[in-house]
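Exercise (ungraded).
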Amino acid sequence: MLASVATFAIEGVDSVEVTVEVDVRRGLPAFTVVGLPDAAVREARERVRAALLNSQLEFPLKRLTANLAPADLRKSGPSFDLALAVALLAASSQVPAEGLGSYAVCGELSLGGALRPVPGAIALAMGARSAGFERLIVPVENAPEAALIEGIEVCGVPSLALMADLLRGRLAPTRPPPAPARRQDHRGPDVGDVRGQADARRALEIAAAGGHHLLMVGPPGVGKTMLARRLPGILPPPTLEEALEITRVHSVAGLAGGRLAADRPFRAPHHTISPSGLVGGGPGPRPGEITLAHRGVLFLDELAEFSRPALEALREPLEAGSVEITRRQRTLTFPADFMLVGACNDCPCGRPGDDCVCSATDRARYRRKLSGPLLDRIDLVCALEPVPAGAMGPRARDLHHESATVRERVAGARARARERLDASGRLSDAALRGRSSGGPVHLERDARVLLSQGRRDSSLSARGHDRVLRLARTIADLAASESIRAPHLDEALAYRMGAAWRAAA
Amino acid sequence: MTVPADAESATGPLTGGDDEESSACAECLRRGALVGRLSPRIAGLLGGGRRRPTGLLELSDDDLVEAVGGQGAGDELDRFRREFDARRASKELTRAGLDCVCRHSSSYPGDLLRLSDPPAALYVAGGRGRLRALLAEPVVTIVGGRAATPYALEVAATLGRGLSAAGVTVVSGLALGVDAAAHRGAMKGGRGAIAVLASGADVPYPAAHRHLYETIRARAAIVSELPPGTAPMRWSFPARNRIMAALGQLTVVVEAQEASGSLITADFATQLGRDVGAVPGRVTGKRAAGSNGLLRDGARVIRGPEDVLDDLLGVGQVRARDRGRSRAGSGGRRDEAGAGDGDWTPDLRRRRKALAAAVREASSVVDLEPPARRVLDAVEAGEGVEAIGRSARLPAAEVRAALGRLELMGLVARDGLGAYERTGQGI
């Protein structure tokens, strides 16, 4: 007898429908799984058999063939266990086969018959909803997360035995409460603790307000890393939609912890990371750090120490807000709309000014590592310098610069930007693609003159021109100004990287 | 010996006309080739470090070979003498696109003959006519360290540009840092520059400056005493420095550490009885310790192109000439060359223009808004935004805005990141 059950497989950060068909007929007892299963899926045979037997269900001693369709998609991982078991139950008439068509089921089985959680519950639920299923059955631990998606009935089941009862109609499904947000108040380090570095704090605020990429350069110990760690505290919390996107990505990577993200992610990979670790890849392919930093911050400390291929791989995602990975004839698009915050020294030895012992060639090589195309995409560059002891000031908190206050200003600027961008779906000005000088950017006359002068005098590329405009727009938003005025543009220009750093030696 | 004045005014400056069939005699070509050939041995003899080939290059061919020594040196010289073919050497030169002027030629820079060991042959890329035209003007040698501060790079570029615009030929060594900045400035100024190499004149060294090399070769001149294809050796740098020192009526050290090659150049210039100038640098750092030391020892203080012009031509000469009054008492080489009065006019026009531009720049400063003014006043050499903000007592946003505006106006410059400096305009 034949039965089929729908399940979903994680593909990148999305899910694709997989139909599990089980055929039971007389013959020598055997259990074959076909349809490009990997080792974990083939092992499902043993788990399913033990789980059925330990749940007081019958494992038919017949010739069993399971097919995972579509047959050309590679299946990996244990999340097909539950679908296999249910299809087997239906095919051997232990549960009614009618009505199975409205279910999608996902879950890993333990030998005892308990259901284990699987990664990517949100992606599974989104896939099931758009495929038109009425009900999604997941392990009970995944249920709150999956229930975040509206428009599909999510059912959390703790074990295979109860799953069978549910299908036999002996158990009424209970709707789990949607996952709570992780936490609302930010308890990270506060930007108000930073003494001195007013310029860098200002840069941080602008970056936060517009989602601009930021590079901090300076000798060791001036506070680059300390400042970067305070960035999440001044970012406004994600909207519900953004939180879902973040949670979806993190859930696929197994980082969500079954809760809705309340904060924007802050990812700080070590500089030895490989290009595919950074942008995503591997046979899976799995999301990289830039995707895990989606809607949040990617902090690359010691930027110049990252491998050249890794840094160059950042170029397209920085511009596009997503990355396309092609592996095994499949092309997956991962979201990667993140703020890049880089920190590096001025030269290999890191000593300031006259104490530097690097040769001109060493310096040039170090600077070349950060290629022009990468730097051209970074809107804000600020050089930090040691704060003299006398200028540190008292430790008393400066209310004007506390994270909460700054966050309010940032949120205000973002709100103005969003109003202006009339819900175009973009997070921020920096994410606004294409030419921005025409539509939403209104330049005052003297600012326009200034910009064309800057274009002529400096090595401002066409992209640089656009980026300066966006930066100026953000600065104007922070100042609650309708149009971009000359001082805003002045400030934006001053934050762009000068040409001399790029010129080798 | 120099070219007659009318011959020069007929060709005009920077036209690479060749007036002689060949400017190098066979003996000098052979000497040049010999030095190139012995270069590795000279390096071996002098060992590591920047030791000068003192006295070595004064020796006759035989003595040089004997001094440099090595196994079978005598035989090798004999063979070299037998096999050396001046015509083939000339052909090789043509193939490399080089000219050669020997010390018996009329095109040979007379200033080099003041050296105790003048190069027998000077290989020229860019044309010997052009070299002659460039050397007919006042010549200033600008040298400095390779790991230069932004301040030094800017001063070097300003000097190069300003002097070049005033009709002065700038000589430097194409090295990283100050040398290249001076060259770039000079090429922008319109007059051009002479690069003296420690490798063959057809070998761009350092390789990072290949582009600059090509620019200078295409529009000005590159010279070396080493035959084509010779790689630079440690000894050839101080040897090159003596040529630079001899070519310039004034040698300006922009920024040099203690024991740097630039000080060797200054030393050579002093020995030749030439003036040495230095640009004041920070006394708290090591980078300018050598050049500051020169100032302490009595070198001329160079603050900009005007100071160099004053030293070359006498105080106030530029302005006096500008008004078209006295032309007497110019201490420059022009008089030696016996140039006619008319030669000065294009330069004068250029200088007047430069002055007018400077005055315009100065008057534009009046328009500065108060915060920009305060920030400009707060900018000290090599300071970052943070320090500027502290001394101007303005919020970070206003400091950045003011700096952006000032940079656009050309009143401040930065080293690409945070270290701002005043450009010397509009003070």
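Further reading is listed at the end of the chapter. For now, observe: DSSP finds 19 helices and eleven strands in chain B. The interface with chain A takes residues 146-150, 153, 176-177, 180, 208, 282, 284-287, 382, 384-387, 389-390, 395-405, 407-408, 410, 414-419 of chain B (CB under 8 Å).
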